[in-house]
Design brief:
The chain is built from 11 helices and 35 strands. With 694 residues, it is α+β, with helices and mostly antiparallel strands. It has 4 domains: 317 residues, Glycosidases (TIM Barrel, Alpha-Beta Barrel), CATH 3.20.20.80; 121 residues, Jelly Rolls; 69 residues, Immunoglobulin-like (Sandwich); 130 residues, Jelly Rolls, CATH 2.60.120.260. Bound molecules: beta-L-fucopyranose (FUL).
Length: 694
């Protein structure tokens, strides 16, 4: 055959290919540094400096450097924990609002150089930089713009000071991956002894564009965090969640650090002008700084999993804070919890059930070899499925070959060319039928859905709306094991008992006779009444795997259905919170209002042999009782001598349940007279008051 005849079709195919347009980017787009930052996904925040030693969250600025003296500071321990938990970096509060510097800054005396730690020769930033290098982590730094120590704060001179510190930090310690600027700015402070209130115009005072430029000049690849970016933005809350709809694009020029419309940051803007993705900062305990009184409040595994899936699973990076303690170490309880989180995540994402399976799409851009549906399952970052230009809705079906169970769906857009998807659904094919199992909005860098466990032989992704043609680069499906933590056991004032498991798909078995529960015990179905004294033990079980949780145990005395608070008598609605058997609610009142004490009517005579007390459990707990007297009376008039008087131990640091016993006494009325509260506070507070009976 004529050579030309053979070559013609070949050449025309090749020519045709080169004519197929590549997908057009749709602005705004991430920079290369932002792409690297996206891939960091999960890293550690460390709040540690003067507040650690003063037990505060915000120091005034007049603290003596002499107070800073960690006994066992070990940044390598922080780095080890970060690395073992799968985090990629550590951001440290080099300077918080009180102005104390963790490095020996040339520009102030208010730093480690005047502390007893290492005789003033220490440098925490240096130690962290070394530890990060050793563990292959990146280091970031927090330099609070607000400085309650500095005499010049509020004037032009302070801006020079601030920028000098930027220079010190960004030239002296190697690569810094992120510079962290919080939004709190201006207010009362020490200010070099002025002790006054200083307000600044948060928008203009720092000349942010020039300050950001300085930062970038010193480290061009750095990511700057603030409410408004420019590179990554705050998510608008400190509770650990991003919006289900979450756009990386943001109308950035409408924001600045501390700007008032911060709620919009939770979801970004579909028509945003700049690429400013969310970073979700949240602490593993209620406080950012270490307080011994929060040792019992380190977040539970289910709470940490919620944080993970609601941040990283919603197109944001997770910055999980660890309040390093006075020793200079991450507390054992925090280490234990983050390791539980890491272990669970490892199992959740253990085996990708759709890796390299067959996929078909209702639309694929010409040049199927490059843009075919299978590209979402090939595990490669640089390949993606794309639809034709103008095609903004399409479906992609994955053939699993056989029925499999799954409950996690992970999807990623090829964001180098912009974030596009506005609406998508997921369907599962089982027993000849398609069933919708999720209906969602945005995807972005990464979206992870936790779904009810579903069996299917095919999975279909339907993208229903997007800003431009679709570019999906990764899709993974997993069957995460059940979360098996101790069931929550609670009983209300009326005596109705409820059990709850962290995972809705497990069974709970329980006993009320003190024996250990197992599969042969009673299966929990719904709340039921048990108003008497009892001990409840419960276990969560996954019947498929046979695995079970540790046993949860809770002891209850008589239900408080007949109880009322008689004194102080003016606000029964509020005072009833002290006897509602709900530890999360509390009641406080000023001591002077009723110095004689709190009187509770138990509704009927009981043989009492002790009391229980839970202090206010809110973050800023009020009126924690330290010294008390307790009386029991038949008629509420003749009280006689106290049945017990004493001190609840270590209440400042450990405000947990207290139980004290005394010789049995019959009575219907209980009086608690408060002799002293923690820090001599002029309020008395209760989350719960209870009695122990025979
Ligand atoms: C806030 C600060 O005021 C808190 O103390 C903490 O540092 C948090 C991460 O940022 O703006």
């Amino acid at each position: 055959m004529n050579r030309i005849l053979i070559l013609f079709p070949l050449l025309s195919i090749l020519y045709g290919c080169s004519q197929i347009p590549e997908p057009e980017p749709i602005a705004p787009l991430p920079s290369e540094s932002q792409m690297n930052w996206h891939e960091m996904e999960f890293y550690m925040f460390v709040h540690f400096n003067m507040n650690t030693f003063t037990n505060l969250e915000w120091g005034f600025g007049d603290e003596s450097p002499g107070l800073f003296n960690p006994t066992q500071l070990d940044c390598r321990q922080w780095a080890r924990v970060a690395s073992e938990a799968g985090m990629k970096g550590i951001i440290l509060t080099a300077k918080h609002h009180d102005g104390f510097c963790l490095w020996p800054s040339r520009y102030t005396e208010h730093s480690v150089k005047n502390s007893p730690w290492k005789n003033g020769q220490g440098d925490v930033v240096r130690e962290l930089a070394d530890a990060c290098r050793e563990y292959g982590l990146k280091m970031g730094l927090y330099l609070s713009p607000w400085d309650r120590n500095h005499a010049d704060y509020g004037s032009e001179k302070y801006i020079t000071y601030y920028r000098n510190q930027v220079k010190e930090l960004l030239t002296g310690y190697g690569e810094v991956f992120e510079f962290w600027l919080d939004g709190a700015n201006g207010g009362t402070g020490y200010y070099g002894g002025a002790n006054e209130n200083r307000l600044v115009d948060r928008k203009t005072y720092y000349d942010w564009p020039a300050t950001f430029q300085l930062i970038k000049d010193l480290q061009p690849d750095i990511i700057i965090f603030s409410d408004a970016g420019p590179d990554t933005r705050w998510v608008g809350n400190e509770a650990g969640w991003a919006g289900e709809t979450n756009w990386c694009p943001l109308k950035r020029d409408e924001f600045w650090p501390g700007s008032p419309h911060y709620r919009q940051l939770t979801s970004g803007h579909e028509d945003g002008t700049h690429w400013v993705p969310t970073e979700i900062d949240v602490s593993i305990r209620p406080g950012w700084y270490y307080h011994p009184y929060e040792d019992h409040k380190v977040h539970s595994l289910p709470h940490l999993l919620d944080i993970y899936y609601h941040s990283l699973g919603r197109n944001g990076n997770l910055l999980l804070n660890f309040p390093v303690d006075k020793r200079g170490l991450i507390h054992e309880k925090d280490v234990e919890q983050v390791m539980k989180l890491a272990g669970t995540l490892k199992n959740d994402f253990n085996q990708n059930l759709v890796f390299k399976k067959k996929a078909e799409a209702t639309n694929t851009r010409q040049n199927k070899r490059k843009y075919g549906a299978g590209k979402v399952l090939d595990g490669r970052k640089e390949t993606y499925w794309s639809t034709d230009d103008g095609i903004t809705s399409a479906s992609l079906t994955i053939d699993l070959e056989e029925e499999v169970a799954f409950n996690r769906f992970l999807i990623q857009e090829y964001i180098r060319l912009g974030q596009r998807v506005k609406e998508f659904t997921v369907e599962a094919f089982s027993e000849g039928e398609w069933q919708e199992i999720a209906s969602e909005t945005t995807i972005g860098y990464k979206r992870i859905l936790r779904l009810p466990t579903t069996r299917a032989s095919k999975i279909r992704l339907n993208i229903n709306q997007a800003k431009a043609c679709l570019l999906i680069y990764n899709l993974e499906v997993y069957n995460a094991p059940k979360v098996l933590t101790e069931p929550d056991i609670s009983r209300d004032k009326e005596g109705t008992l409820s059990l709850a498991a962290a995972d809705p798909e497990v069974n709970i078995f329980y006993t009320v006779d003190g024996s250990d529960p197992d599969q042969a015990s009673t299966l929990y179905d719904e709340p039921f009444a048990v108003p008497g004294k009892l001990i409840v033990k419960a276990v969560a079980m996954d019947e498929a795997s046979g695995l079970k949780s540790p046993v949860g145990t809770k002891e209850f005395d008589m239900a408080k259905s007949k109880w009322s608070v008689l004194l102080p008598s003016d606000d029964s609605e509020k005072s009833s919170r002290a006897i509602d058997d709900n530890p999360a609610t509390s009641w406080t009142y000023p001591v002077e209002k009723f110095p004689a004490g709190t009187v509770v009517d138990l509704g009927e005579p009981l043989i009492i042999n002790g009391i229980s007390y839970l202090p206010d459990q809110s973050r800023w707990a009020k009126g924690i009782i330290e010294q008390y007297e307790c009386y029991v009376s038949e008629n509420g008039k003749n009280w006689g001598d106290p049945v017990i008087a004493g001190e609840f131990p270590n209440m400042l640091n450990s405000p947990v349940w207290q139980k004290v016993s005394f010789p049995e006494k019959r009575g219907r009325y209980l009086k608690i007279k408060v002799l002293k509260t923690v820090n001599e506070e002029k309020r008395v507070g209760f989350a719960e008051i209870g009695v122990l009976t025979r």
